[in-house]
Amino acid sequence: MADITRSYLHKWERLETLKWYPELRKYTFDVACKLLVGTDAAADSHFAELFEEWCEGLFTIPVPLPWTKFGRALRCRQQLLKRIEEIVLKRQQQPSSSQDALELLLQARDEDGNSLSVQELKDQVLLLLFAGHETLTSALASLCLLLAQHPEVLANARAEQQQLGFEEPLTLEHLKQMTYLEQVLKEVLRVIPPVGGGFREVLKPCEFNGYLIPQGWSALYQVGRTHKDSSVYTQPERFDPQRFIPERSEDKAKPFSHIPFGGGVRECLGKEFAKLEMKLFAALLIRQYEWELLPEQNLDMIMIPTPHPRDGLQVKFRRTAATTVYTNSQK
Fold this sequence. Notes:
By secondary structure, the protein is mainly alpha-helical. It has helices at 2-15, 20-37, 45-56, 69-93, 101-107, 118-131, 134-149, 151-164, 172-176, 179-191, 223-227, 271-288, and strands at residues 17-19, 197-201, 206-208, 211-213, 218-222, 289-293, 301-302, 308-309, 314-319. The chain contains twelve helices and nine strands. The two termini are 28 Å apart.
């Protein structure tokens, strides 16, 4: 994950000026392909193109005609599943020592010793690629946007990296000590949650605010509305990572007050994967790079399929003038 991150940071440094959101999509797709399926997306541009066109048609009017977005998405899905089947069959015939998600699925057995069928594996791999890519891209774009709009927060995050002074490669133990960065990421996910909400089935009749909700109905919980609840968060419209320091812990006031990954037994399976990628990306980014938003662009958020700036987040990207991280040897 760190290697892929560094290669993209170097690429963006060479570009100097770029539309960042499409680049972030490529980045997260590369990471997802490598860590979930064990393939190199950068070497298979057609696979990435198919995936992008499929994503574009996921939340459109379901008219399966060839020239509609939905129709093109269906066609792309078939081609994606065919390519994934080739990968699965190859891995079944040539077992590898890869510790990716596909290897875990290939090894999985139920209580009767049965493995997943090829059809099940194909569906699960496609789902994993979407889950490990779409919402994560939105979260990273929001991180980059909000840090650019709040330079004081970026300065504090950079100061933490400087104070810790960890040498690369960063380890999980290093990341755990980045407490301010953790607060920043929680606030990004609170202010612009990548997912708008989720559905739960009502298991037994219940009453809410004087209304009876019958058994079997579907209930929609709204993440954004929950995160802007003024009875939980002080000045909820304000970007304030300090609200998560131990002395305040505003998200602990009521159960399920911070739910970017849902909650309960149906909480997002990829939560830790997403948090790890976000934190590693942020740490490597703010240590040695800076960026500024280009003028005359529309930063309003398009909410479907996931929140992203309307004009694609246009930035000027460069390495910081001075090294911002002290190594242990320098100390």
